[in-house]
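Much of our argument rests on the idea that a fold can be written as discrete symbols. In the encoding step, the backbone of a single protein was reduced to a row of integers, each denoting a local shape. We regard such an encoding as a compact summary of how the chain folds. The record that follows shows the chain in one-letter code together with its fold in token form:
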Amino acid sequence: MEISGLVITFNEEKWIGGCVEDMFRVCDEVIVIDSYSSDRTVEIAEEMGAKVIQQKFLGDGPQRIHGLQFCKNNWILNLDADERLEEDSYLFIKSGKFFDAPYDGYRFRRNTYFRDELINFSGWYPDYACRFFDKRTAQPGTTIVHQDVTGKNVLKSKMHLRHYSWTGFHQIISKKNQYTDWQVEEYVKNGKKTSFLAPFVHGWTSFFKCYIFKKGIFHGLDGFTFALIQAFFSYMKYAKLIKENKKK
């Protein structure tokens, strides 16, 4: 099919093989934009038939935008290395119905797994991500963390991706910490200011929303834990921003 697979990587040897294989189910090429991985990511991707281009990491959105120029097709399947197509999204893309549809992008619901357990509570589902779009009228945003694709008519679909993001709590905390650093970098660049109370307000609001309104309370210790992780992310963004603004 006339679809290009695009994935950005850095030390993803655990996931990249399965990702490339999955994309080749519907794509006629797969482009990997790698940030000079020190593991076997590049070797595995090339063995699977992908074309690898090396690029120093520019940020989540800019790195994806950089990769578009190497994609020969207009329609782009832009998975993360730890994402896979669920059967409903695979069958939709394979059908080719999107060619005649009025949409230039599709947001999928992500089924996120912690080890082998589906985490569909405490704000972790539905975790929408636009991973399929027509680059002529839609493209990734320019933010350096948690970018979102913008287009003329992007559909928020009921189709799914499988997300193998977390293998342990240490990895969650490490990644969340990195994400907050990137988010604060974005805030500082845009001149964002905040108050002393912001970390407490945002942290508490996030916890309350995830634990009560997004049903974490019905999932025992896991519900409390994953709501707390979301609150940690919200709290630390603003705590770090206060520190950075004080430096300036």
